[in-house]
Amino acid sequence: MRHNFLVLLIIALTVTSCKSQTKDTMEQHKYTNDLINETSPYLLQHAHNPVDWKPWNQATLDLAKKENKLIIISVGYAACHWCHVMEHESFEDEEVAKLMNENFINIKVDREERPDVDQVYMNAVQLMTGKGGWPLNCITLPDGRPIFGGTYFQKEQWMSALNQLSDLYANKPETAIEYAEKLTEGVQNSELITLNTDEAIFTTQEIKDAISNWKTTLDYNLGGNNTAPKFPMPTNYSYLLRYGFQAQDQQISDYTNTTLTKMAYGGMYDQIGGGFARYSVDAKWHVPHFEKMLYDNGQLVSLYADAFLLTKNELYKETVIETLEFVERELMNENGGFYSSLDADSNTASGELEEGAFYVWTKTELQKLLGNDFDLFSDYYNVNNYGYWEHDNYVLIRNESDKAFSQKHNISIIELKNTVIEWKKLLFEERSKRDKPRLDDKILTSWNALMLRGYIDAYKVFDKKHYLDVALKNAHFLVASQLREDGGLNHNYKDGKSTINGYLEDYSTLIDAFISLYEVTLDEQWLNTSKQLADYTFDHFFDDTSGMFFFTSDEDQNLIARKMEVSDNVIPASNSIMARNLAKLSHYYSNKHYLKTSKQMLNNIKESMIEYPSGYSNWLQLASDFSSSYYEIAIAGPESLYKLKEINQVYIPNKLIAGSIGESDVPLMEGRFNVDETLIYICVDGACKLPEETTERALDQMNYYFEK
């Protein structure tokens, strides 16, 4: 009965959301806790709460055991709106703090610094409630085994839960322990990957079956899924862009372009300053949660660059350019590293922290600023019922193309574009007078790798040297600051210090980025570093039993479970990125072990991929590579970089690039360099056609059309 009561308590008290922030605490600090010694902006935001917060470390965990107290593990991140709401309502409240301090050891965790901790306790909360999100609040036994959890709690709910749990542990500890044992077993067994011993065969029919399952969930009118809220899912749209093109599926191609267009038109995209917010709360991509995350923008730059390469849609090019301008202006450190995020909240004129305050406009403000241009502006950006949000505020949103708008208003495209540029300048200058959202200035290896890949892809498509310069500066920073002498990576960089042993996400994303950097520069140091990092992951992350990689290194502190990340989400799963990396490296280095591992990993999740393709879209990329022709394009000779730039003007998703302008140590390039001529070799599975001197004839071997 007590067990059933606890389950009902969990269900009754859990409220799900992924929400953000209110005020910084008092100017003159009445309280200071142990978080004052941390570097994480999120942890420092809580350093003056009356709650006696402690960071996640062994000393804190040992203290809980010593005092035999339940642990509150509260996880969030600096840009999270509802994390800040709960802080203001509960963690800044002295009554709540007294209850927490007397009965619990209180640990604050930055999920971006410690994704391993977040992963384990998010899994526990999802098992308990069927839901997840941030803030994440989990109550555990003194040894870290969970007994209760949820996301955002109102003050009264939170206090009620804490009182009942502390009473339960004081009076019936055996009940809490019994429940914790069962829940911990569930966490340890959930999402376990078993070795698929069937032959690793991948077919185009399986991919068609997966897409058929996927099509039922799509919103063909507004893009994205046919639900709200709507998240930009770069990995999904990147694959669907490819599938629509290769399978000649016009419905999927139209859907993907609708999605990219609506996202770029929407309020989720900052129409004045560039860059994307985390997601929109509605179906039309209008009102976002206003936090801007590095990982979203890095991946979306890659996506829009590829989409431009395929479609030549100028909207996609403008989106890439404006997003990268935002990144350099707001998120780039002078050392070449990229910061993590901008908060959803900022100060209003009255000094109150409010979500979206920096980005929204009132009609009165706009009329005063724009004067005679207001009517045209209001039609372009929908300062009307379509663009209205709340409290007299509008979130700017478009709903028609420049061509359609110019025809409606009988003005030329050039005149319209110049007018829009002037509007943006005017509003940008006015907006700059407002208090800016708070910056999370920690630098994460994995997120930097995603942004690095974005710059590489932008350079590849638009041939703008500045993008390559930024990419190289970031890559050299990561090598100098995050790559250790033992060959491993660190996860975090802040205030000149590199900390936290790297996770699989750091290795997989950086290997991918460095392979891509090699493919545009032909500088073999990046390819060699990728191989060295891959070999390191086999030594410290690989699981021989399943043929997959753990998320944490074997050198990390043991949590209640050692998890594997296999489902692609907003960021692809570290295992899917790793599987694709190994497939590519197997071509470059003629390494059968890499290829066998990659195929086994894909084989392990094939059934799930077909049944739930939107959660395995990066795996689908690999399945497509294995199920049809995958081209090795090798370019050798003094004009290799020139030929490479020509090839990069064609959308070819099923390829890798190898090349050299001199003698090469890469096995794939062996014996191919000739100082007197530049030749292009097109190979599939080690079988090569005759080399060609011209890009046009080489691409013709793959049935790709080259237009000079």
Produce a short descriptive summary.
The chain is an alpha+beta fold and 708 residues long.
Description:
This protein is α+β, with helices and mostly antiparallel strands. α20 packs antiparallel against α21 (about 525-540). The longest helix is centred in the last third of the chain and has 20 residues, at about 590-610.
Keywords:
four-stranded mixed sheet; 26 helices; 49% helix; alpha+beta; five-stranded mixed sheet; 708 residues; single chain
SSE blueprint:
Elements: H1 2-13, H2 41-45, E1 53-55, H3 58-67, E2 70-76, H4 81-91, H5 94-103, E3 104-110, H6 115-129, E4 136-140, E5 146-150, H7 155-171, H8 173-189, H9 204-215, H10 234-246, H11 250-265, E6 279-280, E7 288-289, E8 292-293, H12 294-311, H13 314-330, E9 341-342, E10 345-347, E11 353-355, E12 361-362, H14 363-370, H15 374-380, E13 393-394, H16 402-409, H17 413-431, E14 439-440, E15 443-444, H18 445-462, H19 465-482, E16 490-494, E17 497-501, H20 504-521, H21 524-540, E18 542-543, E19 548-549, H22 574-589, H23 592-611, H24 617-627, E20 631-636, H25 640-647, E21 655-660, E22 679-684, E23 687-688, H26 695-700
Parallel strand pairs: 1-3, 2-3, 20-21
Antiparallel strand pairs: 2-4, 4-5, 6-7, 8-9, 9-14, 10-11, 12-13, 15-16, 16-17, 18-19, 20-22, 22-23
Helix pairs in contact: 5-7, 6-8, 7-8, 10-11, 10-12, 10-24, 12-13, 12-18, 18-19, 18-20, 20-21, 20-22, 21-22, 22-23, 22-24, 23-24
